[in-house]
User: Fold these one by one.
Assistant:
Number 1:
Amino acid sequence: MKINQNFCGLRESYLFSTIGKKVRAYKAENPSADVILLGIGDATRPLAPAVIEAMHRAVDELSDVKTFRGYPPEYGNDFLVGKINEFDFASRGISLCDDEIFLSDGAKSDTGNIGDIFSSDNVVAVCDPVYPVYVDTNVMGGRAGELAADGRFSKLVYLPCTADRDFLPELPGTHADIIYLCFPNNPTGAAAPRRELKRWVDYALKEGSVILFDAAYEAFVTEDDIPRSIYEIEGAKACAIEFRSFSKTAGFTGVRCAYTVVPKELTVGGVSLNKLWARRQATKFNGVSYVTQRGAEAVYSPEGRAQTLDIINYYRGNASVIAGGLSMAGFRLWGGVNSPYIWLKTPDGLSSWDFFDLLLTEINVVGTPGSGFGPAGEGYFRLTAFGDADRTAEAVERITRRFS
Ligand code: MLT
């Protein structure tokens, strides 16, 4: 009997589990502390009324033998996939077939599971800092190599994202087979303009690489020059898979619904990745629940769209309160526009974790240490705009008071 040894190469704990553990320990020792959580990007506003009503109706359908439904189709019901295609793509001039869209329970699962269809000897490029799921799942899949003392895995190609390029990665100096890109970016909040994405698509087409494009935060885009989908770039359907989610768009972090686009044009060595992903999902996934899909469908109704936009605007308000307040207090920061994340330089040369501990213990505010997203995140810190507005303003006030 042998285990998958790749798991032994992982860091001991997943970033957000480590933070959760630290916060729970602090609260246990300080039960009266009024801790404000601006760490994990988890929705806090209730679901839109249109979504709730649709879910209630769906529950009623399941209570009647005449309208009861069992297993959902593993790739999603037509009523939802059709709406996704119409509103998220066709309305932006992107032509997709419904069977290029695969429903799932989350972009986290899909960006992790997609590795199943790629060989373990592919060269993988990731941004640094990066959403840890991309790295950890490649460690599990045997593509990352050994963890070195500098915090990097030996076989991954790291694309440093630094302040001098507004946290946009440069093209790799070497060949990469698989490239993870996330825009608007988690964790830095950077948004990639059209010309930047075009450089990546051109690179991938030239090198025969596949871009794994995580667009989970596209609902936060406000500026015209920032594409919401990589398929807005010519040629992208031949080189990119896109991940989308209802989590950050419509507050489905607890409900769970997302989708992945695998265009039929995308082939590797003559093999269709669409077919491989369809095969993988049919075997390992049993679809998104009917009630959830009806809720997601309602996001596209006229009321659902208006109500969802109100929620996004609420979070955008938080982002400007954080960015405005902290820049007034003298912090250097990025993001918060086209993005729910604010990325700031830690003050007084503090390390990311020292700043985390200081905020937690001195003013009871929780954020995410930049170094948890990769070595290039050291000296940076992430705050999320997904909190309650009053609590967010209170957190900004506490930080400002402490550092001015
Ligand atoms: C984050 O805080 O980075 C995200 O909420 C994590 C996720 O979406 O899984």
Number 2:
Amino acid sequence: MSKKIFKSILFVALCVFFASLIFIFGIIYTYFSDICKSNLRAQTSLAACAVETNGIEFLYKIKDDNYRFTLIDSDGSVLYDTSADNKEMENHLEREEIREAIAEGIGESSRYSKTLYDKQFYCAKKLDDGTILRLSVSQTSVWVLILSFAQPIAMVVAIALILSFILAKKLSLIIVKPINEIKPDSPEEYKSNEELKEIVPLLDKMIEQQEQIKRDKAEIEKSAMIRQEFTANVSHELKTPLHVISGYAELIENGMAEEKDIKPFAGKIRTESARLGLLVEDIINLTALDSGSEDSPRENTDLYRIVENAIDSLSTESEKKNITVSLSGSQAVVNGIPSVLYSIVYNLCDNAIKYNDANGSVKVDISKSEGNVILSVTDTGIGIPDEDIDRIFERFYRVNKSRSKEAGGTGLGLSIVKHGVLIHNGKIDVKSEKGKGSEFIITIPESAVL
Ligand code: ADP
């Protein structure tokens, strides 16, 4: 960056310097041209005076490399010229300075000479006898004058170049220094720095990025912690039924179980195996949701149908406790992942039966409102204490551990529900009163696209 700034400063300095040089040369050129012309005018007057006094012979004696003298007759024919053969020279009557001299006594012009191939300044004066004396000088004499300035100009150029180089280098370092001193992890400290006023938008972006990094870091740490906790909980939850199973199996194996115990022991082993099965199934479901189920193909799914299927699957459980399960509402299609939608409905209905009292009831209602499908599951069960409502969606959180285990709960059902609802861009509300019952309300957009 400092290299770029250095180059830009040097480039600008050199541009300004050469522009001023050209400008100064222009002024010097005009100045010396004017001097040349006024000298020419003075020389012409003097020479005219000399020719009028001494005749044409005066011109024969002139040996001057700078000035060219030409004597022209009033008819335009060249009588004498100090640089060319007058006999070969064409009629000069049409030359601007000659015409002017004939008309006004004195004439001036400048043009490229055919014979001498460079720009010439001309000055002509009409003499008393009607002839015209013309003096000319080459423009190169102006350049000769300018070149006499070449040495000091070259010195000025050299000094200016060295100065521009040194200043550009210093300036670029001065500009870059405060930027280099910015600590990337605390850009907010520099916002009040006057020197860095121009890069405040960059500082703002750095601050925003730092905050994003902090947020991302916190999120990564949080999810790592949740995963670690989950793994520890999973192994603990798996171990419990396995211990029960191996304990009863060992009793039978060692012949320590009496004949009458074998049947209840086998029953315990079966119950615990079933619990193990449910646990593994829930873990698999949750892991699938964790590892990007949101990318699964979405289909238009009728939630009413899904509830019908879930109620049907849970009929044995509801009948066992004599719980009436009713469904109201009508077809409600959402664009979602059918298996995840089924898990949501199944877990909510399962809980409504599990945590219900015998002879209780479960009401499921499906309605539509403002582009959303609303699923409500109400039970007349044990309810959830206020202080636990916020925590029931945590993995393995149970209000009453023994009641949950007794009812075959894994502690993962509502985590699956919450995760599933979130990937459908929906929300969950819970209303519950201890001892009276609970209502879980799920709102999912019909389009359900994230
Ligand atoms: P579990 O497998 O234990 O049912 P969940 O994640 O489904 O796990 O639910 C977490 C806890 O929330 C349950 O253990 C229970 O204490 C409470 N809970 C869930 N649903 C209800 C409900 N309908 N009525 C009362 N308590 C409930």
Number 3:
Amino acid sequence: MLSVKSKKFGILENGKEVFLYTLKNSELEVEITDYGAAIRSIKVKDKNGKLTDVVLGYDTLQDYVVGDKYFGATVGRSANRIENGIIELDGNIYSLSQNDGKNHIHGGFNGFNKKVWSTEKLENGIKFSCFSPDGEEGYPGNLTSEVFYTLDKNALGIKFMAKTDKNTVFNPTNHAYFNLDGHPTVDILNQYVKINADFYTENDENSLPNGKILSVDNTPMDFREFKPVGKDLYSNFNQIKYGNGYDNNWVIKDYDESLRVAAEAYSEKSGIKLDVLTDLCGIQFYSGNYLDSFLKGKNGAKIDKHYGFCLECQYFPNAFEHENFLKPVLKAGEIYNKNIIYKFCLI
Ligand code: BGC
């Protein structure tokens, strides 16, 4: 049996009320706020039966308003970096906001993560919707998007749906930072990660994919077997230097648009294991390299570099620059429908 409860989270400067929703079944308890349609907590039982919160989040709405780390947020319209913020689509050039130096990142200055989404409670979860007008952050088309969060036993499902009235670029993701040791947090260097990929997309020194798709063989990018995040994190490998840690897109093996396990992770300490499933083609593994202690986490928890990792399912970033990358184009009249599942168990 699933219960969905809501409570007030805070009020924005413009007077708009923001809520916090709790989805709960016998295995999971998930808090999501309509501010950024963001996951604030995921509680799951550890090996001793203790309810353990395995994602980073903030205590107050104000922290989400000023925070720039995308904690748990729905990121869009387009996740990750787009070189110079320039997109060429149907012969038109679109200039997206340049909110990361000269590049565009995560939907711009006021992306999906800074919007208050409309909500609708469902039998198996909750639906968030938002409207993004033609030209917002430079993106073409009036876009209506929906994010469905549902619970099914030990799995949190995230479904992204959208439609547009003009061909546009659309590549949302969820930006949860996991720390499977739980709160209060320590760094994630001893937590194990496995990525279902033989190849990754090479980054240039600005963390933008340069179009090359390289084998993980004999490199620190090889996560085909479980290894602790910290194992090769301080190697001299250029990709790790460029990103200040892991911050790359991996090419999910045997992509055919069906749901498959893209990555797995576990903590020996808590015994909690996470499986990330998706029907998307890429997964950005980011080892929390730019986390800092500027804002505290929930219950005043310390947050610092490498205190959480993200496994962001998405189309390959910077796809418009490279002929060999699948383009995240949503055509007018078509319906976008992609999924991410975070599934938990004990090792
Ligand atoms: C990106 C990082 C970025 C972080 C926060 C991740 O998705 O890959 O480069 O620092 O988001 O914006």
